[in-house]
Design goal:
The protein has 263 residues and is α+β, with helices and mostly antiparallel strands. The chain contains 8 helices and 10 strands. Helix 2 crosses helix 3.
Length: 263
């Protein structure tokens, strides 16, 4: 039977499919550099999956390669390396909205009563309102926001530097731990971040977009802007912040994707 033109039209890939394709392409390139790409690819497809934990859903050799890649980039990475910035007039007037995981089904969320919960230990928390955060010195950042789906957009954000927020609230000792965990108020979306990226001088807790309060779809009232990471790490609507010497859970890493997700 002859295929119709409509049959030939490919459906757009979902974000999950695009991230998975990116991971497998990266691993394929890794194998190709050492030769035997075809045999390596077949071997990978027949390999067992990793043991599920903080990460899960990936082939065990793929996860091993991703972890080695992370070590390489973390050793190469330096807080002295800043992403390129742009003048305000280059920033997009209409900021692209991508995934709404963690905020699209939170019917009980009340922006008027929102507070950021910073977990000091298992029993104690510090709760900080948006006005307290806005009272700190504001930093503006105009940079190219990059998504694992392949698009990028110059965007203008305003907020407080993460490092200054932590110092102001006397959280420096907690910030010395290896990782920070961030999650939405409803707990549906969460990310894990290593210390160097958290303390990067361009990482901000953003409450403004193009000089105006962030919209709900972009993560009001407070979101993370971490320009050394892909968009999947730039958590919208931060509800909880925690610190640990072990990797915190990460939404996409649990489904087989790159935990580091660095640029």
């Amino acid at each position: 039977m002859k295929a119709t033109d409509q049959d030939k039209i490919k459906k757009p890939l979902s974000i999950e499919e695009k991230i998975k394709r990116r991971n497998f392409i990266s691993f394929g390139a890794f194998i190709a550099l050492g030769g035997g790409a075809a045999a390596g690819w077949k071997w990978l497809l027949n390999s067992p999956e990793e043991n599920a934990g903080i990460t899960g859903g990936a082939k065990a050799p793929l996860r091993k390669a991703l972890n080695k890649t992370e070590v390489f980039f973390r050793n190469f990475f330096s807080n002295n390396h800043l992403v390129k910035t742009y003048p305000k007039e280059r920033a997009a007037k209409t900021v692209r909205v991508n995934s709404l995981i963690g905020i699209n089904n939170d019917q009980d969320f009340d922006i008027g009563t929102w507070k950021l919960e910073v977990k000091l230990n298992r029993l104690e928390s510090l709760k900080i309102g948006i006005d307290e955060i806005k009272a700190l010195p504001k930093t503006e950042l105009i940079f190219s926001f990059k998504c694992v789906e392949g698009w990028d957009q110059i965007q203008h954000w305003g907020g407080v530097k993460m490092s200054e927020f932590l110092s102001h609230h006397k959280l420096d000792n907690l910030a010395k731990k290896n990782y920070m965990g961030l999650g939405t108020p409803n707990g549906d979306y969460y990310v894990g971040l290593e210390r160097d990226s958290v303390l990067h001088p361009q990482t901000i807790l953003a409450y403004e977009m193009n000089g105006k309060p962030i919209t709900n779809d972009h993560g009001a009232p407070l979101r993370l802007i971490i320009p050394v990471k892909y968009g999947i790490k730039n958590l919208k609507r931060i509800g909880v912040m925690s610190f640990s010497d072990q990797r915190p859970k990460d939404y996409w890493a649990e489904q087989g994707y790159d935990y580091y997700s660095g640029l």
